[in-house]
């Protein structure tokens, strides 16, 4: 089977069209294409290895549907996730309002999930400061408050994208492996199970 | 004889009512003439005996299978010293049955399967049973073949798996959650042991675990899929009705980025529907997951052809919902629960299969909760659409005989009237036919040729006819 063994589950959260998929595409395939894509049939689930020192961490990245109509279901996705990238569009203040919703959800339901805030489309802001609708310091304050890390990225230029996932892999190795050494598929398993019971038999 | 005829009334001897064991209490016909206490003791004893016999049989079968396995080992390759000495030992034990042993190798569990079925005691239908036992045999054979390559640990794995299945057969009364726990514990222990054995090579462990899962779940499937202790079946029906009631939902309402006008796209949509329906026919959780993954890949292809770019989750989820609505897969909830309970967690958790499975759970949750808002419809429109179906959802007011419903009502009435006149016509035609036949072949009674018992020579030896007797009081 082609399925890799995944060390850490990472969920991408964020409003529609903030660029979750582009961010993943950039990270996994090092590209940003406006036109037709060639090879991949889907970017909803991808697995990628990241090197941290001498060890490798495989991140399994789960894209989620950002539309509000699926909001009630988002809980099903981030169950058991080790990290969540909560994305917002730097040029769209409404997208940042929705960030607060997900952060609250994550804090309530998945307390062991590390949160990474990610302001996307940094290249647009760099090109024209006037299009920026989300103030950096506001977000930084919010990030400090929820103990999350903040990155401003551009999937077009690749700015900060690798740094975000690299940091995530490092954090994962530094915290998680020490807490549960060795076989951790188990721990994940248990968690997921209880979760599925609750989701499907609500 | 005469004594018997005396007892023909409702006369019952007092002693007949008492427990046959003679304990002094009254017995009951339902308990084979025993009192409740004696019956329970008797029943327990019989059951205990049955269980012991079953165990003996199971052990015997296992020995046979192991012997078959050992002999196949011997035949395949000359294994290292330890297994070979064991093999020798086995061989002496089995010397007398050598021929059957060799046969066993070709069909390792041809005997186990029928035995298992008789255990269950509620085989649905012979054809299904036979089919599934053929499949069970095939899987067992594959399992033994696979384990052969592993030599000594292979035997150990086989033994453990068999013991586990026997063990589970005695736990049929447990709730679904407990069953799930048993299976998950077994996976856990097994993979821990394999992990030590293969010195941490996760790939090899996973390969073996996949086979173990296939073997035990094929065997356990009938007992643990949609067990009676759960309300899975009820939920299946509810979901099925719900999906049927939502037959009017269109691609546009769900914002599905799929254009079925393109032949290649509609082809992939059909394939996706087939795959998700096929899930129900698989027995191993991993195979079911594979169906979901195949379905998802077809969805991605359909989206990619339509949009000319790779699909994101924003495209994928609505399309999956649409596919589920169109497919209305059989026993959807049971399947989801079964996968959740009995799939090897390492697969369900994190990998690609897990992702698609999560999306399916999400699609089902969405369908259950779906309301006007989630389709961008006004509440009135939504109710009107739902009203088209005779089965009104709770909370949705009963549709009046307005618009479409009125016409339908008339149509139904008309049909009923037609049916009524047909019935009357049928009755008349039958009567006419009967009359015709009676006229054609009038009934004539010929005098009997002779008395029916004329050639009974020993009539006089028969007892006298019974006479009514009068009992006083």
UniProtKB/TrEMBL annotation, chain A:
The small GTPases Rab are key regulators of intracellular membrane trafficking, from the formation of transport vesicles to their fusion with membranes. Rabs cycle between an inactive GDP-bound form and an active GTP-bound form that is able to recruit to membranes different sets of downstream effectors directly responsible for vesicle formation, movement, tethering and fusion. RAB24 is an atypical RAB protein that presents low GTPase activity and thereby exists predominantly in the GTP-bound active state. RAB24 is required for the clearance of late autophagic vacuoles under basal conditions. It comes from the Eukaryota. InterPro entries: P-loop_NTPase, Rab24, Small_GTP-bd, Small_GTPase. Interacts with ZFYVE20. Does not interact with the GDP dissociation inhibitors ARHGDIA and ARHGDIB. It is a lipid-anchor. Its cofactor is Mg(2+). Gene3D superfamilies: P-loop containing nucleotide triphosphate hydrolases. It catalyses: GTP + H2O = GDP + phosphate + H(+). GO terms for cellular component: autophagosome membrane; cytoplasmic vesicle; cytosol; perinuclear region of cytoplasm; spindle. Pfam families: Ras. Keywords: Autophagy, Cytoplasm, Cytoplasmic vesicle, Cytoskeleton, GTP-binding, Hydrolase, Lipoprotein, Magnesium, Membrane, Metal-binding, Nucleotide-binding, Phosphoprotein, Prenylation, Protein transport, Transport. It comes from Anguilla anguilla (European freshwater eel). Its main location: cytoplasm. Transmembrane segments: none annotated. SMART domains: RAB, RAN, RAS, RHO. This is Ras-related protein Rab-24. One of its GO terms (molecular function) is GTP binding. Its EC number is 3.6.5.2. It is found in: Cytoplasm, Cytoskeleton, Spindle; Cytoplasm, Cytosol; Cytoplasm, Perinuclear region; Cytoplasmic vesicle, Autophagosome membrane. GO terms for biological process: autophagy; protein transport. NCBIfam families: small_GTP (TIGR00231). It is an enzyme of class 3 (hydrolase).
Automatic annotation (TrEMBL), chain B:
Residues 233-376 form the VPS9 domain. Transmembrane segments: none annotated. Residues 13-47 form the A20-type domain. Residues 68-78 have a biased composition (Low complexity). Keywords: Metal-binding, Zinc, Zinc-finger. Residues 124-134 have a biased composition (Polar residues). Gene3D superfamilies: 1.10.246.120, 1.20.5.4770, VPS9 domain. GO terms for molecular function: DNA binding; guanyl-nucleotide exchange factor activity; small GTPase binding; zinc ion binding. GO terms for biological process: vesicle-mediated transport. Residues 86-97 have a biased composition (Basic and acidic residues). PROSITE patterns: VPS9, ZF_A20. One of its GO terms (cellular component) is cytosol. InterPro entries: DUF5601, VPS9, Vps9-like, VPS9_dom_sf, Znf_A20. SMART domains: VPS9, ZnF_A20. Residues 66-135, 387-408, 448-473 are annotated as: Disordered. PANTHER family: RAB GDP/GTP EXCHANGE FACTOR, RAB5 GDP_GTP EXCHANGE FACTOR. This is Rab5 GDP/GTP exchange factor. It comes from Anguilla anguilla.
């Amino acid at each position: 089977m082609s399925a890799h063994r995944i060390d850490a589950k990472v969920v991408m959260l964020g409003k529609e069209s903030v660029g979750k998929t582009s961010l993943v595409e950039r990270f996994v395939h090092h590209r940003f294409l406006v036109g037709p894509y060639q090879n991949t049939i889907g970017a909803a689930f991808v697995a990628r290895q990241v090197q941290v020192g001498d060890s490798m961490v495989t991140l399994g990245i789960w894209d989620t549907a950002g539309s509000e109509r699926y909001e009630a279901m988002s809980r099903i996705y981030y169950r058991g996730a080790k990290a969540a990238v909560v994305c917002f569009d730097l040029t769209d203040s409404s997208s940042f309002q929705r960030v607060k919703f997900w952060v609250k959800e994550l804090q309530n339901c998945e307390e062991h999930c590390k949160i990474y805030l990610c302001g996307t489309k940094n290249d647009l802001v760099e090109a024209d400061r006037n299009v920026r609708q989300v103030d950096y310091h506001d977000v930084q304050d919010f990030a400090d408050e929820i103990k999350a890390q903040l990155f401003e990225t551009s999937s077009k230029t690749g700015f900060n994208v690798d740094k975000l996932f690299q940091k995530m892999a490092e954090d994962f190795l530094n915290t998680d492996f020490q807490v549960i050494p060795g076989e951790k598929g188990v721990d994940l398993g248990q968690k997921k199970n209880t979760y599925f019971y609750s989701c499907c038999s609500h | 004889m005469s004594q018997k005829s005396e007892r023909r009334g409702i006369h019952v001897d007092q002693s007949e009512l008492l427990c046959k064991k003679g304990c002094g209490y009254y017995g009951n016909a339902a308990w084979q003439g025993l009192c409740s206490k004696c019956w329970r003791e008797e029943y327990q004893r019989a059951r205990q005996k049955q269980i012991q016999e079953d165990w003996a049989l199971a052990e015997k079968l296992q020995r046979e299978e192991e012997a078959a396995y050992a002999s196949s080992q011997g035949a395949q390759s000359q294994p290292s010293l330890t297994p070979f000495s064991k093999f020798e030992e086995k061989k002496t034990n089995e010397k007398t049955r050598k021929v059957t042993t060799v046969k066993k190798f070709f069909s390792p569990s041809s005997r186990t399967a029928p035995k298992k079925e008789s255990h269950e005691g509620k085989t649905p239908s012979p054809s299904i049973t036979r089919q599934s036992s053929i499949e069970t045999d095939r899987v067992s054979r594959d399992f033994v073949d696979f384990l052969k390559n592993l030599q000594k640990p292979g035997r150990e794995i086989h033994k453990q798996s068999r013991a586990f299945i026997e063990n589970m057969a005695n736990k049929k009364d447990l709730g679904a959650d407990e069953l799930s726990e048993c299976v998950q514990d077994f996976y856990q222990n097994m993979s821990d042991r394999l992990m030590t054995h293969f010195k941490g090579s996760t790939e090899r462990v996973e390969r073996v675990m996949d086979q173990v899962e296939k073997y035990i779940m094929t065997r356990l499937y009938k007992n643990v899929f949609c067990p009676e202790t759960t309300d899975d079946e009820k939920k299946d029906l509810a979901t099925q009705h719900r999906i049927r009631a939502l037959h009017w939902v269109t691609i546009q309402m769900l914002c599905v980025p799929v254009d079925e006008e393109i032949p290649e796209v509609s082809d992939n949509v059909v394939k996706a529907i087939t795959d998700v329906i096929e899930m129900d026919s698989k027995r191993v959780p991993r195979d079911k997951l594979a169906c979901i993954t195949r379905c998802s890949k077809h969805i991605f292809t359909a989206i990619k052809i339509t949009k000319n770019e790779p699909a994101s989750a924003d495209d994928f989820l609505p399309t999956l919902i649409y596919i589920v609505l169109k497919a209305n897969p059989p026993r959807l909830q049971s399947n989801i629960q079964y996968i959740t309970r009995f799939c090897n967690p390492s697969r369900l958790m994190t990998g690609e299969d897990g992702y698609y499975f999560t999306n399916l759970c999400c699609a089902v949750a969405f369908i259950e909760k779906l309301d006007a808002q989630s389709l961008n419809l006004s509440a009135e429109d939504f109710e009107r659409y739902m009203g088209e179906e005779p089965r009104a959802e709770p909370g949705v007011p009963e549709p009046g005989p307005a618009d479409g419903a009125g016409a339908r009502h008339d149509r139904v009435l008309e049909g009923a009237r037609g049916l009524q006149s047909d019935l009357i016509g049928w009755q008349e035609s039958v009567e006419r036919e009967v009359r015709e036949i009676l006229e054609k072949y009038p009934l004539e009674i010929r005098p009997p040729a002779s008395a029916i018992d004329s050639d009974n020579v020993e009539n006089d030896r028969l007892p006298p006819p019974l006479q009514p007797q009068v009992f006083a009081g």
